[in-house]
Specification:
By secondary structure, the protein is of the alpha+beta class. The protein is built from 5 helices and 7 strands. It is 31% helix and 29% strand. Strands 1-2-3-4-5-7-6 form a 7-stranded mixed beta sheet, sandwiched between helices. Helix 4 links the parallel strand 4 and strand 5.
């Protein structure tokens, strides 16, 4: 597997949009707008996971700053512990093609994204009914900070957080 930094001009960008549609049923044109906006956020970093020139997965995140849509939304819902929003990166998207699941790709993508970050904490959200994702994040050392989070959609999400340091990137917290 090869990890290739995400760029809009990459041959894998359109493939990522198509994979996102397969995984989440989202309109690729709407997602392209979202991705283009996210690419402009501070300290954007992301990777395509490529196996034999096929897109197997992707991940990206960025520094969470006041004024960003999700930063403001998470801030409201983490009112019990606003320190999570300080010096934080948001793991915005992670997806692995169904054909390549359970091969360690998601773990490698998360580890690679987090290993060079300068922030001390990371946040992410996932649907509460996505049992595989919830199990994966817990196994990787993410702490459930809040459930009952509805980010302007009808589905319930969980907010996860974790510290970022070299010793715990394997999920050994």
């Amino acid at each position: 597997m090869e990890l290739i930094p995400i760029t809009i001009r990459s041959e894998y960008f359109i493939k990522m949009l198509n994979l996102y549609q397969i995984l989440y049923g989202a309109d690729p044109l709407q997602m392209q707008k979202q991705f283009n906006r996210h690419f402009q956020y501070p300290d954007f970093e992301g990777y395509f996971a490529v196996i034999e020139q096929r897109l197997a997965g992707f991940i990206y995140g960025y520094s969470s700053k006041k004024g960003q849509y999700y930063h403001e939304l998470l801030s409201k819902h983490l009112h019990g512990d606003p320190s999570w929003m300080e010096d934080c990166m948001e793991l915005a998207e992670l997806g692995v093609h169904p054909k390549y699941r359970r091969c360690g790709i998601a773990k490698e993508l998360v580890k690679t994204l987090l290993e060079n970050r300068t922030e001390t904490k990371a946040l992410l959200t996932t649907r509460k009914d996505n049992e595989a994702a919830v199990h994966f994040y817990k196994k990787m050392g993410w702490k459930e900070l809040r459930d009952g989070f509805y980010p302007n959609v009808p589905h319930e999400y969980i907010i996860f957080g974790r510290g970022i340091s070299a010793y715990d990137l394997n999920g050994d917290v």
